[in-house]
């Protein structure tokens, strides 16, 4: 059985290009506004969407996503709103996953969370603070339900440890391009190609690179060596910087279409 | 019975490691360094020398006879960690971790602080050992503990006020974790309590367990027997685990942790994590957490900045579940009553954190009666709290 995410990478590999994966926290800029952002992603040519589960203590996130999470939580976003946003994305015909810190999964119920992902058409879950050592219950749940567990690997992950993590992944492997938190950077870390090359020696899974990608040029560069390009903070900044929601949505769509060109120019 | 952690740092279902993959390498390096140091005679001698000649160990015990008159006549014995250099138990852990930092070849330490005790201790150790030091402190806490901010700056540390979230200890830890993820190659995160990802809960406990080892001998020498109960305040739980640990195998000794009930656990404005929380994951380990139905951390409240934390060390969670230790909650008002009482009956101004343990002793003493012996970890002195206490009691400044 394959997920829409698995199918996406079969397609983009056949087209000899990278996939564009866009991130938005559920409930940002508002519960309804998030649904419009998802539509703007789709209109702009995004291949897959990551719905963030806003969390009170996001240690992997820089100021931009922290601010977005705070704004979302202030409006009462919880599991229900996360799964609603997921369904909006999958109903629009794109592959979609949820990105969440571990505690909201544990609180919701591990197997129940995996089931709700599947029930809403979701392909999988990215878990940035779940180490493989603590993942026994999650492994059992995702295998039973048939969704993709996506773990993050970092430049500091050793060669000895890398296959242990990537062998637990399906869908894709999330390569954190640098040692640091989420946020836009003026350039993508020079360590990213090296990390992707090291991951390739351990797995045939697609590899998507995240952290610090915000422009068409950067997307093009990453698409030269990775199977997926993940962009988050740049979209949030586009929304935060816009004078009103309409302008923000237009900016998101414009950025998405530029990035969509970028991921097609890399090879 | 002991509660030795497994190799992955679990205490029953608690503890473990829930962190970004980027930190795994540093945590494994730290774990290897601390395990090697435990049996390295050079390290052991270096740390013992610092304890003797710098922090002033062994700390003494003091029998609080006039205070005891208010505690049902039980004998009350205070372990005087407040007399350590920097004024609290925190120095035990920072000296150990600072030595490890040097052994790992790192030149920069970062630390979080609530009340400022751990921040001051970290800045002190950094000054002593020539390390760069950055302390993250919630903006709210920099206001209520401004004296300690000045102390850290005098000691050469940079103090970064944290503006995110509730602007208290929990957010200071988040910000320190973000710094660590970014600068892990050059930087050691000198975590100040028995929480966080493995190996911190075990390592920090091991640097503090000297409190229980010393005081067990001292109480035996003074009274000829073991105490009936050992009491300590619990925020993250470092001073409590430090004094409890040596007594865990003494089955007849009751171990009682006093959490901060703030306005009262029933009001929701409290920091009593074991009493009023539920199992979850926060700051890298599974433990009791104050959280809502979506797993979002709920902000804690306490008059004591050092106890104002919505998590607790995983070993305490386990000791609670297996029934080896008891945890009670003490309100701001009860703690401040005990604070004032110790000042007036013994001439000792305790930290407001510590006053929670003293309030617990007033209860437990009355329960146990005349012949009981109660050992309390007097974890810190109250100089830093004079302003808060003066405001509380309406003393004009």
TrEMBL record, chain A:
Keyword Transmembrane carried by entry: no
Catalytic activity, EC: 4.2.1.20
InterPro entries: Aldolase_TIM, RibuloseP-bd_barrel, Trp_synthase_alpha_AS, Trp_synthase_suA
GO cellular component: cytosol
Gene3D superfamilies, per database record: Aldolase class I
Keywords from the UniProt entry: Amino-acid biosynthesis, Aromatic amino acid biosynthesis, Lyase, Tryptophan biosynthesis
Ranges in a coiled coil: none
One MF term in the entry's GO annotations: tryptophan synthase activity
Pfam families: Trp_syntA
Reaction catalysed by this enzyme: (1S,2R)-1-C-(indol-3-yl)glycerol 3-phosphate + L-serine = D-glyceraldehyde 3-phosphate + L-tryptophan + H2O
Pathway as given in its UniProt record: Amino-acid biosynthesis; L-tryptophan biosynthesis; L-tryptophan from chorismate: step 5/5
Keyword RNA-binding: no
Oligomer status and interactors: Tetramer of two alpha and two beta chains.
Entry function: The alpha subunit is responsible for the aldol cleavage of indoleglycerol phosphate to indole and glyceraldehyde 3-phosphate.
Name of the protein in question: tryptophan synthase
Organism per entry: freshwater metagenome
UniProtKB/TrEMBL annotation, chain B:
Domain named Tryptophan synthase beta chain-like PALP: residues: 57-380
Residue ranges crossing the lipid bilayer per the database entry: none
InterPro entries associated with the record: Trp_synth_b_CS (IPR006653), Trp_synth_beta (IPR006654), Trp_synth_beta/beta-like (IPR023026), TrpB-like_PALP (IPR001926), TrpB-like_PALP_sf (IPR036052)
EC number(s) stated in the UniProt entry for this protein: 4.2.1.20
Residue runs in coiled coils: none
Xref: Pfam families: PALP
HAMAP family in UniProt: Trp_synth_beta
Protein name according to UniProt: tryptophan synthase
